[in-house]
Amino acid sequence: MQKQAVRSDLVDAKKLLFIASKEDEPYFQRFSSLITGCRVPIFTGEILVASEVTSAAKRVGADAIITTREDYLKKLLPAGREKKAKISNYAGSIIPTAEPGLDILVLNPLKQLLTVPYGEWLARRFITKVSKPNTWRKVSEFRWALLKSEQEYQDAKQDLNNCFLVSIDIETAPPNTIRCISYCGFHTDGTSFAYVFKMDSVRKVQWMKELNESPIPKVCQNGKYECAHFFAWSAPMVNYIADTKNAMHAWFSELPKDLAFLTAMLVRDSMYWKDLGDSGDELDLFKYNALDTWGTGEAWLSLLAEMPDWAMNNYIKKFRVVPALHACEMRGIKRDMQAIKKFSADINADMDKLLTDIRAMVGDARFNPSSPTQCKKLLGMLGYREKDRLTHKLGAPAKADEKTIQKAILVSPLIEVIFEKILEYRGERKLVSTYLTVDDKAKEYNGRILYAINGDGTDTGRAASKEHHFWCGLNIQNIPRESPSAKRVKQSLIADQGYVIFEVDKRQAEARGVAYCSGDKALLEAVNSTRDFHSVNASAFFGVEYQKIFDDITGHTIDKELRDLSKRTNHGANYNMGAYVMLDTMGVKNVRRAQRLLKLSPSWTLIQVCEFLLHRYEITYPTVKTLYYNKIVKDVMTTHKLVGATGWTRFCFGNPRDRKPDLNSYIAHITQSLNAMDLDEGFVRIFNWQRSTNNWNDIQIFTQIHDSVLGQVREDKQHLVQEMANLMVYPIDVTDCKGIVREMIVPVDIKIAGHRWGGALDGE
């Protein structure tokens, strides 16, 4: 082993041997700033066997070893676990050695100290595991057992009922199978024990029900997953009050939230175990399951010990929404299966025509628009070149993803014409494969579309959606809105018999958030005006009389295109989009339409058009991009926090002063977080109203959709929608960037969609 460098300026401190890679060398000085109080010999040479490092550590009198090297990590692991081992998985792990008192800490490559916003903060925390081990909370020893007999179960049940906390985790398999389940009980004397049993009999199902019915407080990691599967077995958890994923989001929304990361960050004596589940050995699976519950319980107890008051307040705000979200997830929305088949066939027929046009344009009857290789070749043939990142020489594009295509479109009208068609084809193909699958690829569950709704799915606190916990369904929030084909997706989602679908939408919620948080007088006047907001913007942005855009008497839009353009411009400018991002968001077709609509110079590039649109917003609402943005930067740079009007607080690792992506993220956070908490409050009020009135059948809530609530109501009880909508409107005191407090009330609009969410089909 070759000794590369030694830090010897600290003579009365712990000594930590650092096994580094050559790639770490440029960051050694940065690394040194994290290890104050320690002497750290550094080695970067070849390692033949793990014991070689242990011997070297003994020779230099090291108290612990730190490593960022994957080759060394693999030599430390048991046979079978080294093959897929990655530093990114094991970062933060303490790996014990045969040498008493000599631990090995795994860190991410030192490059991440600069490239990852939270990289330095996380490395500093991990290093204290070996530099200041006594500062970490003492955790219980991991102990577990596999329950097979009735007597073993009864003994375990008695033990668990004497605990102050029980953590629960299940291991599952499609379509709806619980393979095994673990309950880890934590005692007041600091001990714990995890009990696992295989779900292979009716009696084991009864075990699960009995343990779930226990009044002992329970904690899970992303427990809505367990809730869903327990629901399928009529075995709901009683007193499920804690969730580590929700809590982590409430404290550090920008950090990873998977259990392996949480355990590494919160438990000193933890070692990555997630590779056990893939060994093929059933006993390993059971141990994996037990470790999940031990890690979950210890992580929760560490969170309770460390979370500041503001983070706990965040947690309480978000966790109270979990029951309502779970109820929505298990209800789903009915699907018109016959309509899906027709829609899928129609769109595929349209795609065939589009494919024929594309092939004619490129002169190749076998051209495949979905092929990255063929599209990359086509870009090269059309003369598009990119600079190599290292040599800076121009050459053929390395790939043909959407980002590359958008760049290419900017430099060539011919590429624009051809690749707009190709992007349209790809979009339709993705829409069909994601939302309109049929037969053996269908995503329905007993004729209904299910989905997951995660209140901790975004850094801002706004809920995010994905496929359901039962390996089916779709992302209910991201259904495309633009194309006629996208409308068909919503038309396939229908009300149950005797019901109609409704949507209650918070009117201009994001724009109001920007107005009240910034205090821009013109924007405040616009959002509080009785006139149509987007038409007011269109008039201000583009110098067209309001009366030519919208008729207040009839409530009808006169110039729909101009109003739509102002809507897109407002959305982009609200979140500090640059011209390139706005182009990507609006799409080439819409930007060209804006160019024609506003009679801008035909010689202008797409970027120039976007810059013009964004500049119109800045002129109209000057406070937003000056005082308001400056206040956000100041708050983050001085406190590392953003505190919203509802009290929701976000810890910020980014640098909005020097990095525009960070600035954009925090600008978006202010209003999106405000809207998310506003919607959550209304959502919980609706749920509690239904609980108090036992009104679960007359009106049923499907989900949150960004700023709205979607549901169905009995045809003869539609007045209940207004009662529900009233619960969603309440005042919030908002302090603007100048310190002025105003009361913000976001009104709601009610839309009764009828039998189909997307409106009736032709002929209905």
Key terms:
764 residues; alpha/beta; Uracil-DNA Glycosylase, subunit E; Nucleotidyltransferase, domain 5; Taq DNA Polymerase, Chain T, domain 4; 4 domains; seven-stranded mixed β-sheet; six-stranded mixed β-sheet; 29 helices; 30 strands; disordered N terminus
Record the SSE blueprint.
Layout: E1 3-6, E2 14-19, H1 28-32, E3 38-39, E4 41-43, H2 50-59, E5 64-67, H3 70-76, H4 87-90, E6 94-96, E7 103-106, H5 112-115, H6 119-131, E8 144-146, H7 150-161, E9 165-173, E10 177-186, E11 192-198, H8 202-212, E12 218-220, H9 224-232, E13 240-243, H10 244-251, H11 259-266, H12 282-306, H13 309-319, H14 322-331, E14 333-335, H15 337-362, H16 372-381, E15 386-387, E16 394-395, H17 402-411, H18 413-435, E17 448-449, E18 452-454, E19 464-466, H19 484-491, E20 493-494, E21 499-506, H20 509-518, H21 521-528, H22 533-542, E22 550-551, E23 556-557, H23 560-574, H24 579-586, H25 588-597, H26 606-620, H27 624-639, E24 641-643, E25 649-651, H28 660-693, E26 699-705, E27 708-714, H29 719-727, E28 732-735, E29 741-744, E30 748-754
Helix pairs in contact: 9-14, 10-13, 11-12, 15-18, 15-19, 17-18, 20-21, 20-27, 20-28, 22-23, 22-26, 23-26, 24-26
